[in-house]
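Ligand: fe (ii) ion. Inputs:
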Amino acid sequence: MASGSGSWPFAVRPLTPHLGAEILGVDVAGEMPEDRFRAIYRAFLRYQVLLFAPRDLPPARQVAFGRRFGELQIHVMNQYHADGHPELYRLSNLDQHGRPSGRHPDRGTLAWHTDGSWQRVTGQATIIYGEVMPERGGETHFCDMYGAYDRLDSAWKARIANLRAVHNLDFSRNRRHGEEPLTDTQRQARPPVDHPVVRTHPETGRKCLYLGDHAQSIVGMPYEEGRALIEQLNHLAVHPGLTYEHRWTPGQLLVWDNRCVMHRATAFEVATQPRVVRRCTVLGEVPT
Ligand SMILES: [Fe+2]
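Predicted complex:
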């Protein structure tokens, strides 16, 4: 298990009393010795969300930094691939003239979720670089899912201890009005999978709630009953004492641990305000 505040070879500024930290004086675009990266990784396990100061981060350097964490996902929705790097996924509301198009690039990001939960091997870190940010809105919010589990009373914990949820990308995309559906090929490439509702983080050993917007139903439970349970738990999870709300400055980099946080983006004025981010997701493991 990661140590507490520990001693760090860089300055660490916590973003809330227990979730998130800004790492100061580290150049993620440059060459990074292994011991420096190990310390960043330790901070990642300890704080769950890491923030790095604004800097120019070329796409190739973002991919290189991501690879330090592990294997990078090549996203099934290839319409988002960016800059000739299939590991990067760009979300932009700009049209071909660079003007706000009025269309949100992915309304699914507005609901609390955890990246890659619709895959058998789920997301470990997500690494997002903010290229262009709106004056208002377009924030990223985080919720600590260790805390969400810890807050449940013993009756809740007993009730969900051995449940598994079906996660389905086709479900979470299609139920949002106006969202572009998956193609048949994309759908066949990503059939629904099931994961434990309470997962144990493979590196810290701590239990956390693992649901979010891709969770469709509960294995062995009537559909409507499972839906109600998922909605209730997703709602219970998000508590003011467990969240960090990030207001972006362009050029910042955010890294978070999908195994123990949920996140969402807030709305912005898509017809008048620009917002462009590029992200990569590191593949983790099969949840247990
Ligand atoms: Fe996401």
